[in-house]
Amino acid sequence: MNLALLMGNRYSAWHLQGFHLLRGEPAITAFRAESQIQDHFSERGDGTEAFNIERIYFDTQSGNPIARTKNVLLERYASRAPRIVPFHDRLQGFDVIHSWELFTDWSAEAALARERFDIPLVVTVWDLIPFNMERDSERRAIKCRVAEKADRFVVYTERSRRTLEIEGIGEERIAQVNPGVDLEKFSPKPTLESKEEFVILFVGWLVPRKGIDFLLLALRELFADPELKGRRIRLQIVGSGAGRDRVERLIARLGIGDACTFSGALTYDQMPEAFRGADAFVLPSIATGEWQEQFGMSLIEAMACGLPCVATLSGAIEEIAGDCAVLCQPNDFLALYQSLRDLILDPSRANDLGQRARRRVEERFDLRQHAGALSNVYDSLLQ
């Protein structure tokens, strides 16, 4: 099977790990656009090394020089979003096309290829807000076209499934596939170590929607807690991208700089040790008008490593974590503080939570099961 993979500028080692284990070892071509977002993934290793790469371009990068210059100026001064230069003709000859989200330019190109070349089209949908990304009439038109043309939609959560059904897509076209974790790579540390400090781990973009601002406020409250006086507590921040200046200013204002360590963007191979070096993991996501936590990739990695986890009730987090993490309200630094305080003061509860988290990942989020389920989707379209 020759598979065309269209993730645009969202290629990462996490997203692609299951594709390396597909049944029959298909030939995979990744149609990849370069951008600041893709640069962020690439600095950690984007997982495309074993694939064929086809470059696609935004209209600020390629095309007529005059039009390109105009588009660059509109992006800079008029908030115009760059658009992908059409490439659907390059999809002819593939056996299956697998694209990403209903509203993207690459899914629009995939829908054109589906219509013109009769190639089965699969679309992964992470979004879990019905009728999202429809304020722009052009994006709404793309969503409608892709919804009509795609043969199968792959979703990772029940919320995404229900979102598609609300938007009019029949259940027979939807396949729910649990994402997976490499359970050998992401595993608990062999023995419990006696450490002088309690390390809290945050992994993610340093943007407000990931909730790190509330986590910093919670950390300040931990230091003010009389029962924790004298305890060494440190926040390890793994992440990069826009937002570090804002985060550093808040850290300075709260006076907690000595307790915060920035690791920057780690490669995917470095992440297991980052989890094993921590005592608790926090995913403090908050919701915006167009986004809720769609899954929480770092959450299931932390759970696989046997870490006790604290997370917010945002989007699909509760669906992923079940009763194997401490869940609290988003936008609530006091709730985060109380949840972390309880784990620090009750090591036996923290240990039990970590063990239950590992078992849940083993049962639901095994990478091999993910690859097998994805293979079944492709096979059903090629019969």
Structure at a glance:
39% of the residues lie in helices and 17% in strands.
Give the mean pLDDT. Answer: 91
- Please state the second-level CATH architecture of the largest domain: 3-Layer(aba) Sandwich
The span between the termini is 12 Å
User: Regions with pLDDT < 50 over 5+ consecutive residues?
Assistant: none
The SS-based structural class is: alpha/beta
Q: Identify the CATH homologous superfamily of the largest domain.
A: Glycogen Phosphorylase B
- Tally of individual domains: 2
* Biggest sheet: strand arrangement: 3-2-1-4-5-6-7
Please identify the top-level CATH class of the largest domain.
Alpha Beta
Query: How big a fraction of the residues is strand?
Result: 15-25%
Which characteristics define this entry?
383 residues, Rossmann fold, single chain, 2 domains, globular, alpha/beta
Can you walk me through this structure?
This protein is 39% helix and 17% strand. The model has no long low-confidence stretch (mean pLDDT 91). Helix 7 (212-224) runs parallel beside helix 8 (244-254) and helix 10 packs across helix 13. The protein is α/β, with parallel strands linked by helices. Helix 11 (317-321) links the parallel strand 12 and strand 13 (326-328). The chain folds into two domains: 2-180 and 366-382, Rossmann fold (3-Layer(aba) Sandwich), CATH 3.40.50.2000; 197-364, Glycogen Phosphorylase B (Rossmann fold), CATH 3.40.50. The protein has helices at residues 13-16, 36-42, 65-78, 105-117, 137-149, 158-166, 212-224, 244-254, 271-276, 297-304, 317-321, 333-345, 347-364, 367-382, and strands at residues 2-8, 27-33, 52-56, 96-100, 121-125, 152-155, 174-176, 197-203, 232-238, 260-264, 280-283, 309-312, 326-328. It has a seven-stranded parallel beta sheet with strand order 3-2-1-4-5-6-7, with helices on both faces. The protein has a six-stranded parallel beta sheet with strand order 10-9-8-11-12-13, sandwiched between helices.
